[in-house]
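# step 3/5: fold
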Amino acid sequence: MDASVALCPRHPQRAAEGTCSRCGTFVCEECRQRRSRRTFCVDCSVREAHEGPSPRARLALKFSTAGFLGFVPGLAGLVLGMKELAAIRRGEAPVAGEPMAVVARNVGWFHLVMLLLVVFVLLTKV
């Protein structure tokens, strides 16, 4: 095999087909695990399957839900949800938090639109 070809650490006789999006380890076709549009090595795939949502994903959902009591928490949920989704895309946060972050972001957008409507109605009444 050519010395410039990356090899799979579990199967040194096989050329790597890609890298793990979490740890950067080279993976062959047999070792490559695909989850949520990302590629993982066997070890990271097992870790990812047992990992729950991050604290930021949980907090984003709590703030977005609390936004029904007032707009400020809902806007905080929007920001936290967007930050969590960006961290998930970069591989810095567990994929398990994606559903919570999506709901937090969407509910946060709802609160922002409602806030803008309230401001518009109040300004047009003057």
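# step 4/5: annotate
Residues 98-125 form the longest helix (28 residues).
# step 5/5: archive (pending)
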